[in-house]
Write the structure tokens for this entry.
Amino acid sequence: MKYILIILSIFFIHPTGKTQDVNTLMNLIKVKLDKINSYEALATMKTSIAYLKIPIAKVKVKFKKPNELSIQSNSGVTFIPKGVNAISLQNIFSNEFTAIDAGKLNTKDKSLRIIKLLPVSQNSNIVLSTLYINETDLVVEKNSTTTKEEGTYEIEMKYGKYIKYGLPDKLTFTFNAKDYKIPKGLTLDFDNSSPENKKQPQPKSSKGTAEIVFEKYTIN
């Protein structure tokens, strides 16, 4: 009986300790991001979608606390997929969530902490977010989020000059391209320009990517 009690004590106490550690880590990242009230960034954006040749664009990315984000090209035309607000981690951290420790991802040069976030509110569009965190620099290097309306998207972030602010120098946003709509005012080429191919719908399973390379941030 004594051994059973010891085993039960370990089972119930150990997860609590891990949860506290996870919450501490998430709070440290949130505090780092909360230091930014707003920013404007000049960037180059390359969007890749099957059957389409979308021109590389110079864009301006604007953020304002708590989670307002906009991306505008120099031509005045925006061609941003749904769910792009996820590139702002403040959007995720501004909601209440339950954090769950999901272990670590070990690569050749680093170890990333995996944390799953479950929203507290049932009205949240986000179903589940999985963050891959660099604990040394307190930055999120990868985020996979499943939503009710936009499906699942992934973001990979590379850091450099602005790592102390938790802002990436480069990010790659992967999204479901089946619902992508060509905005008014934007002229695109098709990879295969025959009339027959132009009429063909994109496969439901097609994926698109948006690669954004930031040149300069103005941070407030």
